[in-house]
Task: inverse folding
């Protein structure tokens, strides 16, 4: 009988399987562990798995008809003979030192139910290590981890990207729960059941990289799928910011009665700030429905949705009737007024501590508010949070990513507000994103910020002026995964010549307004040069716009020639 069974689950369609298996085999040989390697794969990927592993001897492939990670791992256990089980997801690269450290940590005491490492691709922050950021700064992830966490620490839970436990303990706890339909949640549930039985969990200062750390699915449904099961079984809503429920979990006596655990977990909702989502819509019911559905699909639970309908027909009003039974939604028929005044109705109605605009042709991705609020709660100096945005076409087909220009390493980064503002102005490009992609804190000024900006004459780059206001006060968090979808289609005002020319007039204005906050003289000249070149490109089209706008454009052109 082997001392260790490594159960490697095919979770990436066998794309990284060969490298993962080779690393596991080498780690065992180099650290002297007697191990068997079991590969469990959904049957659709059996052929790919066999091809990837054809050159590796002494390996057992176990196909099974399921996509559930819980069932994959449980199936692998049925073939395991080792006294210890190491559950590894495809893509995680074991090494000898890390494997030995995990084995030694588990062997410290029979009270230890499971141990796990850190990685650069996790679902939760708890075991995440931003290795890309450390490497960008010239460091080594393993060395940095040894300095910051030199000893193994008791853990709230352990993810199963690499989870080591005794076989007897796994059998005693009943394995992974099959109620979780895909990947995610089954590891947290197993952790909680171990803690209920009196076992300790250890987070060991070991870093194991994931080959797919820089790859992010556009629609990550991990939280959405796991959320209802964890809520039902434990009362824990993982749609809430992790920093909030971590604190609640740490306060729990896990051997008390289950009702107290449920009550403690549910109490986290009382500390969750309200987010006001503003949807301003105009005669686009087909897009509006998708936008509204994306707001309702947020994993973050504490939201209100205020719909302002400025349409000239009743199509949106009829559509929204199907949703008004939901107490989170308020529908208001907007007054007939100039477009630049439409925003004025929203802030007086908002009760939220945070503001999320949602243009009626854009979409929020499910974890947007959960992740962005967590960033605010962890970083007091942050004033706005954004991400890359996915781009979709008129039919909703994904066409690519619109990147953020500031350098971000890993899953997210905290970037200087001053540097971000400088880059916005020198590039004259709104890489921070449209209002649909940004979350910001509701300010208590008598006049809402958007009204202040519009009053200063901004109509096209209103959002840029708002972002600069926040960046002058603090920093910005940028997420690498896309957390929102920006729709490009022919009906957008941004496609119109008048909008392009108006934006040049406003970029010239914003450069002057924020020059002293962000720019050196050289930076200022760089920004002016960008506007000047754009004016040259628009000159052949300038006769198409209204005389008043034409005059403003010509004044900008003349000022740039001085």
Result:
């Amino acid at each position: 009988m082997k001392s260790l069974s490594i159960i490697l689950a095919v979770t990436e369609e066998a794309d990284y399987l060969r490298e993962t298996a080779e690393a596991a085999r080498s780690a065992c040989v180099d650290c002297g562990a007697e191990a068997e390697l079991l590969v469990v794969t959904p049957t659709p990927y059996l052929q790919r798995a066999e091809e990837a592993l054809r050159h590796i001897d002494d390996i057992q492939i176990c196909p099974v008809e399921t996509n559930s990670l819980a069932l994959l791992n449980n199936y692998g256990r049925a073939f395991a003979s080792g006294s210890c089980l190491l559950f590894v997801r495809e893509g995680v690269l074991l090494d000898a030192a890390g494997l030995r450290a995990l084995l030694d940590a588990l062997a410290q005491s029979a009270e230890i139910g499971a141990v796990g490492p850190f990685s650069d691709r996790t679902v939760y922050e708890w075991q995440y290590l931003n290795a890309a950021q450390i490497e960008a700064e010239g460091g080594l992830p393993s060395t940095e981890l040894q300095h910051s966490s030199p000893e193994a620490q008791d853990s709230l839970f352990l993810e199963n990207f690499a989870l080591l436990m005794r076989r007897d303990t796994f059998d005693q706890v009943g394995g992974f729960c099959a109620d979780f339909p895909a990947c995610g949640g089954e590891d947290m549930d197993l952790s909680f059941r171990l803690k209920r039985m009196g076992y300790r969990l250890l987070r060991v200062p070991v870093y194991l990289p994931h080959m797919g750390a820089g790859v992010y699915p556009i629609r990550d449904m991990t939280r959405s799928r796991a959320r209802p099961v964890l809520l039902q079984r434990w009362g824990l809503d993982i749609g809430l910011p992790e920093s909030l429920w971590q604190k609640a979990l740490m306060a729990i006596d896990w051997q008390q009665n289950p009702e107290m655990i449920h009550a403690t977990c549910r109490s986290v909702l009382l500390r969750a700030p309200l987010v006001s989502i503003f949807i301003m819509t105009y005669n686009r019911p087909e897009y509006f429905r998708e936008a509204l559905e994306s707001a309702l699909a947020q994993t973050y639970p504490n939201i209100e949705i205020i719909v302002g309908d400025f349409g000239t027909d009743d199509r949106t009003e009829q559509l929204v009737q199907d949703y008004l039974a939901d107490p989170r939604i308020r529908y208001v028929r907007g007054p007939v007024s100039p477009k630049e005044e439409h925003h004025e109705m929203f802030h007086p109605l908002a009760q939220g501590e945070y503001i999320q605009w949602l243009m009626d042709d854009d979409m929020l991705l499910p974890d947007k508010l959960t992740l962005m609020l967590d960033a605010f709660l962890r970083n007091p100096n942050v004033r706005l949070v954004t991400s890359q945005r996915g781009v979709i076409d008129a039919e909703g087909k994904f066409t690519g990513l619109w990147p953020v220009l500031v350098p971000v390493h890993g899953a997210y980064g905290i970037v200087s507000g001053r540097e971000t503002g400088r880059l916005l102005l020198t590039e004259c490009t709104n890489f921070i994103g449209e209002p649909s992609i940004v979350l910001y804190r509701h300010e208590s000024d008598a006049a809402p910020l958007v009204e202040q900006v519009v009053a200063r004459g901004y109509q096209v780059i209103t959002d840029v002026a708002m972002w600069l206001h926040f960046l002058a006060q603090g920093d910005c968090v940028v997420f690498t995964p896309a957390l929102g979808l920006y729709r490009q289609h022919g009906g957008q005002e941004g496609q119109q010549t008048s909008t392009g020319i108006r934006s040049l007039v406003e970029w010239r204005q914003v450069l002057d307004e924020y020059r002293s906050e962000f720019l050196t003289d050289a930076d200022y000249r760089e920004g002016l040069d960008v506007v000047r070149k754009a004016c040259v490109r628009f000159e052949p089209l300038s006769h198409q716009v209204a005389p008043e706008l034409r005059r403003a454009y010509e004044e900008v052109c003349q000022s740039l020639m001085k």
Notes: The mean pLDDT is 93. Residues 4-210 form a domain with the Spore Coat Polysaccharide Biosynthesis Protein SpsA; Chain A fold (CATH 3.90.550.10). The chain has three domains: 4-210, 273-494, 503-560.
